[in-house]
Amino acid sequence: MERTSLIVGVFAINLLVWAGCKSNWPKPSFAFTKQNNTEINPKPTKSEPDTITVQHCLIGFKGSVRGKSISRTKEEARALATQLLAEVRAGADFDEVIRKNTNDSPPGIYKMANYGKMAMGKDVFERDGMVPAFGNTGFPMQVGEFGLAEYDSRESPYGWHIIKRIE
Fold it and tell me: HEC string of 57-95?
């Protein structure tokens, strides 16, 4: 029994050392996360910019945003986010949509630095310092384009984010 424990311990130490060595390797240039067997939220590619500025409207549901009393269900939040995305894509005033519907603080504008880039300035967030789906949706978009970061307990735990890339 002692020999088995020793072997397992040595294996665990070697695994940790090996993982530590690999942590300095560059991140893959292209990867996907999966949701419902659909590839979503692409990770950074070589064509993504160093920084972006996005504006968003958060559509949360009961219990999803700490400190906010939201009464809608997940299903109602999904339906509202989908409806509002269609409206802004059809020309609705995004600032007005945000003012009336967001469960975050209007105007909901954030500047983000991509992976491996320095967040220069106090109002610039590092991409991996934000909710993953936020940057994964925003960085691949073109300026003026709208996207939707779907609710996912790991990627977007606060609800649905309707995102517009503004820079």
Answer: EEECCCCCCCCCCCCCCHHHHHHHHHHHHHHHHCCCCHH
Residues 6+ apart with CB under 8 A from 55: 94, 98, 107, 108, 109, 110, 163, 164, 166
What single-letter DSSP state applies at residue 156? B
* Cβ atoms 88, 162 nearer than 8 A: yes
Contacts 24+ apart (CB under 8 A), 121-130: 124/51, 127/44
Arithmetic mean of pLDDT over the chain: 78
Domains of the chain: 2-38 (no CATH), 47-165 (3.10.50.40)
> In the 8-state DSSP scheme, what is residue 48?
S
| For residue 6, pLDDT beyond 80 | no
Q: How many angstroms from the chain centroid is the CA of residue 21? A: 27
Contact between 149 and 161 (Cβ < 8 Å): yes
Write out 139-150 in H/E/C secondary structure. Answer: CCCCCCCEEEEC
User: What pTM, to 2 d.p., does this model score?
Assistant: 0.70
